[in-house]
Amino acid sequence: MSTTPETVSSQPHLYEPPTVIEVSVPIQALAFRESDGRYSIVVPELPGCISQGDTLDEAAENIVEAAAGWLACQHDHHRDEAIRSVTEPLDSESSEATP
Predict the structure, then answer these.
(1) 88-94 contacts: CB < 8 A, separation 24 or more?
(2) What is the pLDDT of residue 73?
(3) Could you tell me the CATH number of the domain that includes residue 59?
């Protein structure tokens, strides 16, 4: 058994480029029939994600497209921040870490 403390590399861990994985997430939307017979539809979990359609089926198709666009915009907006936090060394990999 060694009593020598482990040395921690001062070099940050370099990650390979990430692999993109498509994720399907069920999200509920609320549809409201308007006085003119058309439908408005909103996704409460995605602020501002609203659509409409002449029929309930059309409104449902439109909100799927709107939700995908909403999520894509959020992804693009936060992508650089997320990549930076993932590629930074873990506490255990930093030179300040103690064994």
Answers:
(1) 88/12, 89/12, 89/13, 90/13, 92/8, 93/8, 93/9, 93/12, 93/13, 94/8, 94/12
(2) 84
(3) 3.30.160.250
51: its two tokens: 């659509």
Domain span at residue 45 reads 30-85
Q: Classify residue 78: in a domain, yes or no.
A: yes
Convert the pLDDT of each residue in 31-88 to its tens digit: 999 999 999 999 999 999 999 999 999 999 999 999 999 988 877 666 666 666 655 5
**Total tally of structural domains belonging to the chain:** 1
Q: Structure pTM?
A: 0.57
Residue count (the chain): 99
